[in-house]
Amino acid sequence: QVQLVESGGGLVQAGGSLRLACAASRSISRFDTLGWYRQAPGKQRELVAGFVSGGTTNYADSVKGRFTISTDNAKNTLYLQMNSLKPEDAGVYYCNWRLAVTVERVLEAWGPGTLVTLSS
Known about the structure:
Layout (H helix, E strand, L loop, with lengths): L3 E4 L2 E4 L4 E7 L8 E7 L6 E7 L3 E4 L7 E6 L4 E6 L8 E10 L5 E5 L3 E6 L1
Parallel strand pairs: 2-11
Antiparallel strand pairs: 1-3, 3-8, 4-5, 4-9, 5-6, 7-8, 9-10, 9-11
């Protein structure tokens, strides 16, 4: 089973940038979905950016043009570059990997999350 650990969160001023990293315990180059989610206090977890097998990349409308998702398969690491951060970007950011090995067997992993805090 894949284990994921996020890093790179912290306190940043509005307008600033952060780069989150998600280190995997083994290769995550094979996936059905691979992405970043965030959860703000009192809100549901939402997709921020993600890859779908076959080449599709999705971004939440609120982060388009500001955030970029990428991978380094040699390092088994997923990244999220976040620029022009806004107060509404604050929350706990989680990475997620999901792979359906068979119709009946779906593998999924979440990291423990990394906190992003914005100061105005």
